[in-house]
Write a structure and sequence with these properties.
- It is built from 16 helices and nine strands.
- It has helices at about 5-15, 20-30, 35-40, 45-50, 60-75, 90-95, 130-145, 155-175, 200-210, 225-235, 250-260, 275-295, 300-305, 305-310, 320-330, 340; strands at about 80-85, 105-110, 115-120, 145-150, 185, 210-215, 240-245, 265-270, 315-320.
- It is globular.
Length: about 350
Amino acid sequence: MECNEKDLLLLIALHRIRFLTLAEKIILLKKLDSFNALALMSIEDIISTCGRNISKAVWNGKENLRAAQKELAIIQAKKINYVTYLNPEYPALLREISDAPLLLFYRGNLNCLAGKTVSVVGTRKITAEAKKDSVKFAYDAVNAGYTVVSGLANGVDGAAHIGAVTAYYDSVEKSASLPEGKTAAVLPCGCDTVTPASHARLAEQIIISGGCLISEYVPGTPAENWRFVQRNRIIAALSPATVVMQAPAGSGALITADFALGYGRDVVFHKAAFSEMAAAVKKAVEKDLDAKLALGKVSKYKRENTPEKYLEAGAPVVNDFQDFCRCIAEIPGTRSLNNEQLKLF
C-alpha cells in the first residue's frame, strides 16, 4: 500500500528524526495532518506532544523538511519501494521490537520475509572451512523453504547469500521446482546502492532469485560505521534464530547475537566457529584486541565478547542445517555444554 506524495513526505520527515522513538513518531503521525505542521513545530511543541523531556535535542523543522524533500525526490527517481510500520506488509517479526524503523525501504520481493526465516552471520575474516559451511547451510535452508537473512558483507554474509542464490539457479538449471526459500540482505546504507560495491552482482542475483534488499535508511544514505551496528539489530529481529558461523572476539556478528538475545530470539553457533582454522584466526584477533585494549583503543566489552561467553550461557552448537532444525525443535537447554565440553573449544 503506497501513500500519496504528501503523506509520504510527512513519513520521511518523521522517520529521519533520530532523537524520537518509534512510539513517539507514531504519536506525532496520528496528531499531525501535514508535513508543514511538523516543520512548524518547536522542540517545546514536540516535548508537549510526546511527553518526554528532549530539550537538549537539536531540532530545525524547516531544515528537516528540506532534507525530507530531497530524499523523497531520490525515492521517486529511483523507484524505491517502501513499507510503513503501520502497513500489514511490514515484516511481522520486525514489528515485534520496540526500536523498529517507522519506514523500511526495499528492492525486490519483501514478501520473502513473511515465511520461515533464519539469520546467518559471521566474521569478514572467514576461513575456507567456514565459507564452505556457510554456503552449504544457506543452500540447504533455502531448499527447505527458509529465507536466509544476512548483511551482504564480505565473509560469512556473502557466502550465505551465495549459497541461497545458488539453490535458486541450480533449480533453474535442472528445470526443477523453484525453492520456496529466498534470501534477504539488510544494508547499512540506502538500498539504492550496495556495500561493498564488489557485491553489486550478488545483490542483483538476490533480487532475480526472488529475495530482497532492505534498509531503514532512505536512498542516498552512505554507509557509516555506526550504521553497520544499527542494521545488525534488524538482521537479528527478522528471524526466530540467528546462526553464528564464525566470529572471533569483538566481531560484529556477536553484536547481532546480543541483539537477538535481547529480542528473545535463539542464538546458535555452527561448529565451524570452533575449528582449528577458526582457532588460528581467534588467536590473532585476540592478540590484536589485547594490544588495542592496553592502549585504550577498544572497549573491554569488545575484548570480552567471545563465542565462549555464549556457550557458557547455554548457546548450542550445530553441525549443519539439518542439525539446526533438530536443535530448534528440542527442549531449550538440551544442548547446553558443560565445563568439560567447553575445554574442547
